[in-house]
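Subgroup meeting minutes
Present: P.N., E.W., G.H.
Scribe: E.W.

1. P.N. recapped why we're keeping a running log of single-chain structure predictions: easier to compare across weeks, and new members can see raw inputs and outputs side by side.
2. G.H. added today's entry (500 aa).
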Amino acid sequence: MSESKDYSSTPPSVEQQTRRGVSWSFAGAVITNGMRLVVVAVLGRALTSTDFGIVAAALSVNAIIYGIRDVGIGSALVQRTELEAGHISTAFALSTYLGFGLATVLFIAAPWIGIAYGITESTDLIRALALFFALRSVSSTSRMLAQRAMNFRRITIIDALSFSAGSTVSMVAAVAGAGPWSLVAGYLVEEVIAGTMYVWSHPPKFSLRIDTQRLRELMQFGIGQTIIQSANIVATYGDNFVVGNALGARELGYYTRAYDLIKFPSMVFDAIVGNVLFPAFSKLQHDREKLATGFRRVAFVNALVLLPASAAIIVLAPEAIRLLMGPGWEDAVLPFRVLAVTILLRTNLKLGGILAQAAGAVNAVAVAYVIYMLVVVGGASFAIRWGVVGVAVSTAIAITLVSIHCSYLALQVSKLTLASFLAANGPGLVLAAIVTAMAWPLSSAMRSADVHPSLIFAVVGGAAIALCLIAVAVWVRSRRGDFEWLGGELRRLRRTRGAR
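Output recorded in log:
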């Protein structure tokens, strides 16, 4: 008889745990993304575009291999309805074997990878970052157990502390003249601290024995998840390989800086909502009505926030790049603007994929991500003749296509109608049009008057926020459609704070 224990930890109210998780994740996102902006500002002035390009080459290779770090069984621990001790020990053993094995392969192959990339300066950095696999393999099971338990208070504290520590190390090292090694040091410090805290807070069953039956059960979900992880990472970094190989470290630095800044909103979505939604949707995977309601509401809020924000960012791109990165980064403005068009699409891509996977449609999502990967890499290879701007356009097209695909899959599994989904995005589109109509002529006039970039950013950005808040307040008072729900959530939040 197999050793069995109940690890399901089904909460009395998934909705309540989801709200708490979002609240804690929001607090963590404020800290980590506030620190991230400081890091961008400091490193943008302390490091060169070439430094960033060298590190981007090393990180691209590591990230692509990272997609197969546990062949998807970590996510399977979260998604499974029934979980036994054998599943956990097997997940820990396999993750450890793969982590140390991949670290060894990467360390040995680093010189050839640097030559293939066309940036041989990245060889030693690739070897140093290979340690990441060994470190993460020991703690990955603990991370997934924390997510399954929806213990987002602890997750937030661990992630915020480790990220802040790693970021501080990177900034100090960069100012001290460590160059690209400052980024490597920060990544490794962050991983050591986070891994130690996760293992301490959610210790797995330390065992190097693999139970073949439990492995097969995990792999039913894990194979598709591995394909998704691998394809997504190749899609995310494949264009980097094309740019670095064809144009060199300097141009790769410009491209990756523009891309990384645009990833902020989707990273915030992951930090605040994405990590909460997967375990929450997994617990509700057999309740299609609740899945549909959750999908529509999250899509509604995403559009309400991100569409007008995207419009403002596109208009204020020169000022945003200048303030965040410092002088000398003007070549990143146009690719930044092109990629900014995809901010909501990137988030909907993640939202649709999360819901479809939680409902069991992992193989369908895997197909979507494979198509995404092929379009990104193929498009970048074709568009590289037009430089980083051409690659930015091809990547934007790829993101658009996979976003539509994943949203369609989410509509299928949740039974939400297309008309309902499009209606949820309507108010956000209206706000984006309002912001554009105000921000474009105002910013153009201020630039013509030679106003300082910081003042342009503050005035136009502040006006955009004010307009959006006024419009939302009017809509909430009308209590129509999704705004009736939003008003109820805001009133509930005020009551909760008042009770405290």
